[in-house]
């Protein structure tokens, strides 16, 4: 298998592979943002900022410099939460995390900030998670809106909007309509 | 406020809806003084554009007075502005290259999925033109929330220039101009323009301003051909004339140097209900009106340029790709980068170089909107351009 891999290897990322079948669900999304990598890293690294662009996140509570409790909206007014720990932190370049034991949705991931000069920064988020069954599975389904790629892509789009324009685009005609959309 | 709302095929209503207000810091709210019905609104009226929802406020050509501003807006209340139909952030890669209609950020994140699935990349945003392009409430209303008001709207400093002269800076004048620009016209060129609707007529004017020696304009509505003739175009009425044969004879067998398709697929080519389903079935659509782009490619001289401002939405069957390649043609197209053209075209209007009011056939209040959509659809020879002025009581023919 390893030999074969050598022969067919190209320069594309593993997440675009037709042949590699990881143990966990894997999603990778990439967006280019016209801001410096350090600025994007700094905003992302402050976990209190994440709910501004990550959908369905009720809150992130900072426990210490590396650990935070994630609370995700669930149906019927409920919520689920887990503790996420930063396992590798390269200032201005990347952040890797892993959920701690006992998480409802075991997940890990890495977000990279790659300086591409004039065009700004490529932000690449790779997320691996175990899709659970039962009620938690439904929560995950909601969180990822059935299609995890679409959900993380939307989150990255919002991050880009916020960083490039200072606001997140909305078609709501007035604040009441915006609140109504967010409740859905 | 009162607004024209979409409720389905051939069902436009004048209704009372919630007023707009500032939502984001860069927003402004405009009190609309003039707004037009666009040819592309007919795609919505005919029910061919997917992702419309009942109650959507229509309209993407409008201007008015600033009545409210967000903390990051650079506009001031009381200013008179024309608003570009493209909602563009001004700060993304494409906006910085002045490719405003390709703006990455104006379309809300959730609304980008549809066009990304259909076109490979998400579309930019526009006012009043389905949820695929953002789901923003449009300008056929008393008031409009305008995002990115610090970079989009053009302030009209001269109150002596009436609305009707500058309103079309919002869409059709820049669209006609960009159509001619995309045709890369050289002095002495013969330019053929398919379609004498507002965009085609502005393309005729623009082509002459860019140095075209001859412009040949085509349509089947005599009144519209007459308007083209007024600007010096020669005309072909395709109902009575074989277009290709006429074009070849009129150009000494060479063909026009540049061909502009200002027709598009109209109702036939746009996606129906579900874009994803439509992709699967649309190879069976659009054979009718795609006639124009096919004919433009066949008639164009070898090494010539084809410009396509006309709207296409899906797939086209029997595209003459062989002729396109073997003749060495260039094709340029796209939604208009309105913000790029507003200021220079405003100057041209103020200096009297471009006439915009000639095509207006009717003026009315919002109340008459539903009736006028029907007329615009059914009587295109008489109704060449409709301008709505909220508060006007009666319909007035120009």
Brief synopsis:
The complex is a heterodimer of chains A (184) and B (398). Chain A has 184 residues and is an alpha+beta fold. Helix content of chain A is 29%, strand content 32%.
Brief descriptors of the model:
heterodimer, A: 184 residues, alpha+beta, 5 helices, B: alpha/beta, Quinone Oxidoreductase, Chain A, domain 1, 2 domains, six-stranded parallel sheet, 19 strands
Topology:
The complex is a heterodimer of chains A (184) and B (398).
Chain A: H1 2-8, E1 25-33, H2 37-45, E2 57-62, E3 67-73, E4 79-90, E5 94-99, E6 107-115, E7 121-129, H3 134-143, H4 148-165, H5 175-183
Antiparallel strand pairs in A: 1-7, 2-3, 3-4, 4-5, 5-6, 6-7
Chain B: E1 2-6, E2 12-16, E3 28-37, H1 41-45, E4 56-57, E5 61-69, E6 80-83, E7 86-87, H2 93-96, H3 112-119, E8 125-126, E9 143-146, E10 154-155, H4 163-166, H5 172-182, E11 190-194, H6 198-209, E12 214-219, H7 222-230, E13 234-237, H8 243-250, E14 258-261, H9 266-269, H10 275-281, H11 291-299, E15 305-308, H12 321-326, E16 330-333, H13 338-350, E17 362-364, H14 369-378, E18 386-388, E19 396-397
Parallel strand pairs in B: 11-12, 11-14, 12-13, 14-15, 15-16, 17-18
Antiparallel strand pairs in B: 1-2, 1-4, 3-5, 3-9, 3-18, 5-6, 6-10, 7-8, 17-19
Textual characterization of the structure:
The complex is a heterodimer of chains A (184) and B (398). Chain A has five helices and seven strands, in the order H-E-H-E-E-E-E-E-E-H-H-H. Chain A is α+β, with helices and mostly antiparallel strands and 184 residues long. Chain A has a single domain, classed as Alpha-D-Glucose-1,6-Bisphosphate, Chain A, domain 4, CATH 3.30.530. Chain A has a seven-stranded antiparallel β-sheet with strand order 1-7-6-5-4-3-2. Chain A is globular. Chain B has two domains: 232 residues, Quinone Oxidoreductase, Chain A, domain 1, CATH 3.90.180; 162 residues, NAD(P)-binding Rossmann-like Domain (Rossmann fold, 3-Layer(aba) Sandwich), CATH 3.40.50.720. In chain B, strands 3, 5, 6, 9, 10, 17, 18 and 19 form an eight-stranded mixed β-sheet that branches. The chains are: A alpha+beta (184), B alpha/beta (398). At the A-B interface, helix 4 and helix 5 of A face loops of B.
């Amino acid at each position: 298998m390893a030999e074969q891999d050598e022969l067919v290897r190209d320069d594309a990322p593993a997440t675009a592979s037709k042949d590699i079948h990881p143990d966990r669900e894997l999603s990778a999304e990439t967006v280019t943002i016209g801001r410096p990598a350090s600025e994007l890293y700094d905003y992302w690294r402050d976990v209190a900022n994440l709910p501004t662009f990550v959908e369905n996140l009720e809150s992130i509570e900072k426990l210490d410099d590396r650990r935070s409790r994630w609370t995700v909206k669930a149906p019927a007014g409920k919520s689920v939460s887990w503790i996420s720990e930063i396992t590798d932190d390269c200032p201005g370049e990347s952040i890797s995390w892993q959920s701690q034991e006992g998480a409802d949705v075991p997940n890990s991931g890495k977000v990279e900030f790659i300086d591409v000069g004039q065009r700004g920064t490529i932000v690449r988020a790779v997320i691996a998670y175990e899709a659970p069954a039962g009620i938690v599975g439904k929560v995950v389904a909601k969180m990822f809106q059935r299609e995890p790629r679409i959900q993380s892509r939307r989150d990255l789009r919002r991050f880009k909007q916020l960083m490039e324009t200072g606001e997140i685009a909305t078609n709501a005609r007035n604040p009441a309509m915006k609140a109504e959309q967010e409740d859905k | 406020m009162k607004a024209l709302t979409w409720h389905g095929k051939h069902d436009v209503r004048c209704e009372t809806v919630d007023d707009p207000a500032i939502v984001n810091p860069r927003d402004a709210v405009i009190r609309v003084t003039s707004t037009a019905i666009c040819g592309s609104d007919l795609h919505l009226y005919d029910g061919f554009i997917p992702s419309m929802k009942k109650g959507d406020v229509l309209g993407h050509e409008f201007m008015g007075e600033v009545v409210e501003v967000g903390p990051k807006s650079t506009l001031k209340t009381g200013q008179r502005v024309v608003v570009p139909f493209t909602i563009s952030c001004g700060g993304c890669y494409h906006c910085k290259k002045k490719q405003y209609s390709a703006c990455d950020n104006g379309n809300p994140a959730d609304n980008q999925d549809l066009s990304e699935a259909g076109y490979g990349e998400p579309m930019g945003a526009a006012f009043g033109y389905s949820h695929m392009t953002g789901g923003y409430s449009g300008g056929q209303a008393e008031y409009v929330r305008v995002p990115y008001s610090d970079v989009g709207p053009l302030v009209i400093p001269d109150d002596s220039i009436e609305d009707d002269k500058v309103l079309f800076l919002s869409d059709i004048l820049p669209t006609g101009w960009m159509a001619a620009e995309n045709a890369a016209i050289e002095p002495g060129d013969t330019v053929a323009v398919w379609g004498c609707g507002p965009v085609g007529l502005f393309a005729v004017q623009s082509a002459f301003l860019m140095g075209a020696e001859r412009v040949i304009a085509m349509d089947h509505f005599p009144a519209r051909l007459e308007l083209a003739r007024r600007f010096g175009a020669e005309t072909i009425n395709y109902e009575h004339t074989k277009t290709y044969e006429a074009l070849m004879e009129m150009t000494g067998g060479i063909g026009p140097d540049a061909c502009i398709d200002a027709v598009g697929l109209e109702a036939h080519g746009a996606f129906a209900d579900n874009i994803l389903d439509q992709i699967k079935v649309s190879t069976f659509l659009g054979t009718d009106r795609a006639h124009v782009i096919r004919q433009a490619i066949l008639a164009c001289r070898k090494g010539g340029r084809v410009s396509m401002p006309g709207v296409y939405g899906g797939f086209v069957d029997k595209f003459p790709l062989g002729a396109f390649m073997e003749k060495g043609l260039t094709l340029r197209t796209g939604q208009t980068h309105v913000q790029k053209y507003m200021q220079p075209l405003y100057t041209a209007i103020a200096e009297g170089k471009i006439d915009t009011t000639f095509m207006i056939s009717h003026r009315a209040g919002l109340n008459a909107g539903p009736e006028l959509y029907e007329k615009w659809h059914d009587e295109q020879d008489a109704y060449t351009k409709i301008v709505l002025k909220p508060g006007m009581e009666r319909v007035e023919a120009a």
